[in-house]
Amino acid sequence: MNKELFKGSVFLNPVPAVVITSKNKEGKENAFTVAWTGTICTNPPMLSIAIRPERLSYEFIKETMEFTVNLPNSFQVRETDYCGVISGRDIDKIKKLNLTSKPGHHISAPYLAEFPVNIECKVKQIIPLGTHDLFLAEVMGSHIDKKLMDENGKIHFEWANLINYCHGEYFPMAKKPIGQFGFSVAKNPIIIEKFAHIKSYVEYSIPKKENNNSLTKKHKKKKITKNKKK
Ligand SMILES: Cc1cc2nc3c(=O)[nH]c(=O)nc-3n(C[C@H](O)[C@H](O)[C@H](O)COP(=O)(O)O)c2cc1C
Q: What are the pLDDT digits (tens) for 31-65?
């Protein structure tokens, strides 16, 4: 592969895009979108979100140390984007979007009833990093749409049409898995057979007519060296 070398920017893609709900001490509710989020611990169950201090949600969450992560599905991508471009300082986003906020079970922060998965969190630590502060939070409990559970109680997140966020755009999650945990070393013939068609090679989906070598001015500035030794 002939690779360009970039410095700086976090090119971690794709990431989730989620809507965070919170409530301040006066009872005012808000929702905003976060893509800088991730699972950070299994036990205790913990996740993180990175928030810029200028967000209204930053104020709310710092005040109460609680928030809920709401996972949108592909049909809620417009609402998800809206919550990420409009501030609760200017408009009541939950009301404007006709979303139903329900009181949390474990915390006072609300959750969005229409979103298939809601994860209630209590903030344990806030780490200032630079543009963003990292909120480390413990998961107190979750609400999951019963329709996503099979007769054995197994949760099928893959049925939920969840979305991911890649370099400024939203994408639907693929419907079929291309592997499962441990399948590369599986002995179970059913699992071996299930993924037998998955081969190891690199294939891109590059649109034919586009000139993919064209770099934007911003990217050109960041490009520091071209590896000429081949
Ligand atoms: C897809 C997407 C992802 C975003 N991710 C973050 C994030 O991780 N952290 C953050 O502070 N803001 C993020 N934002 C921006 C906030 O959601 C946005 O500034 C929002 O309007 C803040 O709302 P608030 O002032 O009501 O809290 C993101 C926006 C979008 C559209």
A: 999 999 999 999 999 999 999 999 999 999 999 99
Ligand 1 centroid to residue 123 C-alpha, Å: 18
Residue 182 Cα to ligand 1 midpoint, Å, equals 35
Nearest-angstrom CA–CA distance, 121 and 140: 6
User: Under a CB-based contact definition with an 8 Å cutoff, are residues 31 and 55 in contact?
Assistant: no
Amino acid at 106: H
Residue 16, number of CB atoms within 10 A of its CB? 18
Q: Which residues are CB-neighbours of 158 under 8 A, at least 6 positions away? A: 173, 175, 177
| Dist CA 92 CA 107 (whole Å) | 21
Cis peptide preceding 14, ω within 30 of 0 = yes
Which atom belonging to ligand 1 lies closest to the Cα atom of 132?
11
Per-residue model confidence as pLDDT tens digits over 76-119: 999 999 999 999 999 999 999 999 999 999 999 999 999 999 99
Of 33, 70, 76, 162, the one to substitute when testing ligand 1's pocket (max ligand atoms within 8 A of C-beta) is 33
Superfamily of domain 16-176: Electron Transport, Fmn-binding Protein; Chain A (2.30.110.10)
Give the start-to-end residue ranges of the domains of the chain.
Answer: 16-176
